[in-house]
Write a structure and sequence with these properties.
about 200 residues, alpha/beta, 10 helices, globular
């Protein structure tokens, strides 16, 4: 809710191209991106896409039950149009774009001239686009793609990620011009029994 009512790149508009990243592997960025996208579809309506921009450890085939096919890489390289790489999911109006097939490395791909056109296609065809990005403290990919998006969220695994790692992630992103609009505390455990918490 806070994100959707916050000012975006245009006055009064929420960010429409949103990156989801983390400090390291396994913090739940793919799950967070999927859940956030499904909430957007239900609450805001329109068409929403989730883009697999994590070429290092792709998982959309399992997460969204989509076929391994052409995807984001093919869109950037101009080899496939958006209509052919955006696959429908089990949720109406929610589409998934897998990473696709890339012969060059992700960093080179995200720095290529075709990226601007691919992002413009996504912005034109969808009301919101959520990008599942690789971990910032492991790869430079998020720092290359992130500044091209409207904003980014940092996923933090509760009781596992050190705050120093999160700070390093935030500084790395802001240093290259990424607009960090918040964080998601994932896998939070409640150590207080429910009946006691109700009394607090």
């Amino acid at each position: 809710t806070n994100l959707l009512v916050a000012p975006g790149t245009e006055a009064g508009q929420p960010p429409r191209l949103l990156g989801v990243t983390a400090s390291r592997h396994g913090e739940g960025t793919t799950t967070t991106a999927a859940v956030f996208a499904s909430i957007l579809v239900r609450r805001r309506g329109g068409r929403v896409a989730v883009v697999e921009a994590n070429f290092r450890s792709p998982s959309f085939e399992t997460a969204f039950n989509i076929r391994r096919a052409d995807g984001f890489a093919d869109l950037i390289l101009g080899q496939k149009p958006l209509v052919e790489v955006a696959q429908p999911t089990d949720i109406p109006n929610l589409f998934a774009v897998g990473c696709g097939q890339a012969t060059q490395g992700p960093s080179t791909l995200f720095d290529s001239p075709g990226l601007a056109g691919a992002l413009e296609q996504l912005r034109t065809q969808f009301d919101f686009v959520i990008f599942d990005l690789p971990p910032v403290n492991v790869y430079s990919d998020a720092s290359i793609l992130g500044p091209r998006l409207d904003a980014s969220l940092i996923v933090i695994e509760a009781d596992a990620t050190r705050m120093s790692e999160v700070e390093r992630t935030r500084r790395s992103l802001e240093r290259v011009g990424v607009r960090v609009v918040g964080s998601v505390l994932n896998r939070r455990r409640n150590y207080i029994p429910a009946f006691i918490e109700e009394m607090l």
